[in-house]
Amino acid sequence: MSICELQVWIPDNEEVWQSAEITKNYRTGDRVLHLLLEDGTELNYPVDPAPLPPLRNPDILVGENDLTALSYLHEPAVLHNLKVRFVESKLIYTYSGIILVAMNPYKQLPIYGDAIIHAYSGQNMGDMDPHIFAVAEEAYKQMARNNRNQSVIVSGESGAGKTVSARYAMRYFATVSKSNSNVHVEDKVLASNPITEAVGNAKTTRNDNSSRFGKYTEISFDQRHQITGANMRTYLLEKSRVVFQVSEIKQWEPLPTAPTG
Q1: Distance CA 183, CA 162 (A)
Q2: Pfam families per the record (predicted)?
């Protein structure tokens, strides 16, 4: 087997993964892979007994709005594709099949107004750019068409933006269903957040005010597919971590050393 004129991903202590080009044919049994890094450095990468490094996707596929369209789908390919879309194109949403991957920009973006909601209303998922509204529209359309309950799962690490994403989804439902309520349903549901967070938040290494709980919010619709109300059906508190308050840790001071001589 021979491999040449291909690019691969190799682990990097600072960038996590870095791209490299194979400069010499690799044959079964070779102990090293001859690579050329992007900065011009030549590297003999050991591959025995380690496996061959993952291949890099062609440049024409970089920036795809659906990760399943990539030729090679692995950790470095996913991270690089998300990085290109977020850093270079300022796009925070990417599909992975029916899953929507969201990057938290930690700032308000002008992509959630009523005009955007109406643009996604009635569209099939995949016809337009990836968006939380596309996921909400798919759930709403399936509910109205098939008269069956739908679920939207919002998951992610602490600080990923789960609460905000859920709020935008509920705003979409309230807008497209032409709810007559004077107060939007997302405002009513999120008004309970201070109560749930008061007993379910804890400081972690990644977030000073991390939500250590999960909840299942049920939104009810009538026969005209308009919102009639919402309630919290399930509240799962992570009791193993929200059990006590850590006492203040004093700054460590080294013990005095004994005199020498």
Answers
A1: 22
A2: Myosin_head
pLDDT in tens, 239-255: 776 666 666 544 444 44
| Surface-to-core class of residue 112, CB atoms within 10 Å of its CB (0-12 exposed, 13-18 middle, 19+ buried) | middle
Residue 156 assigned to a binding site? yes
Q: Distance from first CA to last CA of the chain, Å, rounded?
A: 68
Q: What is the model's pTM?
A: 0.83
Is residue 161 annotated as involved in ligand binding? yes
| Arch. (CATH architecture) of 92-237 | 3-Layer(aba) Sandwich (3.40)
Render 28-64 in DSSP notation, one character per residue: TT-SEEEEEETTS-EEEEE-SSSPPPPBPPPGGGTT-
* Residue 83 among known ligand-binding residues: no
- Residue 247 bridge partners (DSSP): none
Domain range summary for the chain, segments of one domain joined by +: 7-46, 92-237
141 is in an annotated binding site: no
**For 27-85, what is each residue's pLDDT tens digit?**
888 899 999 999 999 999 999 888 899 999 999 999 999 999 999 999 999 999 999 99
- Residue 166 in marked binding region: no
Answer yes or no: is 238 a known binding residue.
Answer: no
- Tell whether residue 204 is among the known ligand binding residues: no
